[in-house]
Amino acid sequence: MLKAITERVSWAGKVDWELRRFHGEEYSTHHGSSYNSYLVRGEKTALIETVWSPFASEFVENLARAGVLDSIDFLVANHAEPDHSGAMPELLRARPGLPVYCTANGVKSLKGTYHQDWNFQVVKTGDTLDLGAGLALTFVEAPMLHWPDTMFCYLSGENILFSNDAFGQHLACETLFNDTVDECELFQEAIKYYANILTPFSRLVTKKINDVLALKLPVSMICPSHGVIWRKDPLRIVEAYLKWADDYQEDQAVVVYDTMWNATRHMAEGIAQGMRDARPSMTVKCLNAAKADVNDLITEVFKSKAVAVGSPTFNRGILRSVAAVLEEMRGLGFKKKKGAAFGSYGWSGESVKMIEEGLSGAGFELAAPGLKLSWQPDGSGLEQCLAFGRELAGNLG
Ligand code: FEO
Questions:
Q1: 169 Cβ closer than 6 Å to some ligand 1 atom
Q2: Binning pLDDT at 50, 70 and 90, where does residue 1 land?
Q3: Ligand 1 mean position to 332 CA, how many Å?
Q4: Cβ(165) to ligand 1 under 6 A?
Q5: Of 35, 49, 79, 241, which residue is the catalytic one?
Q6: Fewer Cβ atoms within 10 A, N terminus or C terminus of the chain?
Q7: Contacts (Cβ under 8 Å, ≥6 apart) of 179
């Protein structure tokens, strides 16, 4: 079903209320998602993006039912990842020869994924596609936001930026617009998306946004490829991105741990209490890495200025849930955050040193010497945890 955004621009995507895991099993989507496709009708008609392959038939049938399938003149593929390109094979079987506008890297990705020699039209920043009736698309390459092939396009005549994944959120919504959904839920999904997907590219985010803002183009709406359209105060999400890209942190710390017989959990809770005692105004959260959703946990790390990471020693190493979080943090490349390690042990006690190595390798500055305690912490052990938490909080500046 097409939904009107303006008189000449319609949404033609798919709202996926059922989606709970994205990128395979890698990303949790508690609120579903959408694959947004947009139809722009001037004298010529452009379709911007398709949808994920499970919905390909439905997507193409909807275009046919709306009587627009045969009138599409151009397909714009801002990004080749399968959640946006998945319906291209079915669409291009229905419309063989349809020109596909994408970047040079887009051609590589699409050919590598679908092994088809479609009618590719390679575009670069500043190239335009005239749709007549006062409408034109201008392409802006945005490499690494978040793939090498990514581009945005700007529709003059309607002042709409089609930003692909940037400014998107995994949020199912039938009413399309940011002013029709719960704002807390919306911004939580937007920051989670940024933290888990865009953090490694923050320097490029800042540069690309500033380059686009310098063009002083009027922007009436930002249409991303997931979630809601930013219609009310559209630059608010742009300002949020500039803030998030600038080594974002709130007055928050998070204690991340896993535990076998609760000794490391008791340490975690003592450390968190010590931090709260030293900085009562700071938010301090305790998350068990084996039980918390890893993408939500990473979002809390993203918001934090410090992370205390704990694991008991297990097989002369650390528990796998903590190893996974350290690896995730390494890959995301957080900047200007502090860290510290702790853990209980019975015999050999390697975990704290291994966590410190993991934190340093992930770019965290160690803010306090690691704390390791043997067996269950007693009164004196818990006092050491409180002191460790106070010391860590005191070193946060
Ligand atoms: Fe929504 Fe990078 O795909």
A1: no
A2: confident
A3: 17
A4: yes
A5: 79
A6: C
A7: 231, 232
Structure tokens at 120: 């590719």
What predicted TM-score, i.e. pTM, was given to this entire model? 0.96
Q: How far is CA 103 from CA 52, 146, 200, in A?
A: 20, 14, 22
Examine domains 3-245 and 253-391 and report if their fold is the same. Answer: no
Decide if 250 is catalytic. no
CB 225 near ligand 1, within 6 Å: yes
> Which of 318, 365, 320, 360 lies closest to 342, judged by CA?
318
Classify each residue of 84-111 as buried b or exposed e, where b means 16 or more C-beta atoms within 10 Å of its C-beta: bbbbbbbbbeebeebebbbbebbbebbe
208 touches ligand 1 (CB under 6 Å): no
Q: Which helix (H) or strand (E) holds 352?
A: helix 351-361
Task: Catalytic residue, from 101, 193, 241, 345: name it.
Answer: 193
Inter-CA distances, 272 with 7, 385, 390, Å: 54, 9, 9
- C-alpha 326 – ligand 1 centre gap (Å): 24
pLDDT band for 260, please (50, 70, 90 cuts).
very high
Q: Where are the domains of the chain?
A: 3-245, 253-391
pLDDT of residue 397: 81
| 81 touches ligand 1 (CB under 6 Å) | yes
Does the annotation mark 146 as catalytic?
yes
CATH class label, 3-245: alpha beta
The tens digit of pLDDT for each residue in 283-303 reads 999 999 999 999 999 999 999
Shortest-distance Cα residue to atom 1 of ligand 1: 165
Asked: is 253-391 a CATH 3.40.1160.10 domain? The reply is no
- Is 38 a residue of the active site? no
Q: What are the residues facing 338 on neighbouring strands?
A: 306, 365
| 137-160: pLDDT as tens digits | 999 999 999 899 999 999 999 999
> Hey, is 75 helix, strand or coil?
strand
Cα–Cα distance, 86 to 74 (Å, whole number): 17
Q: Which candidate in 146, 149, 300, 345 is catalytic? A: 146
Q: How far is the CA of 128 from the centre of ligand 1 (A)?
A: 23
* 79 Cβ inside 6 Å of ligand 1: yes
Residues in the chain: 397
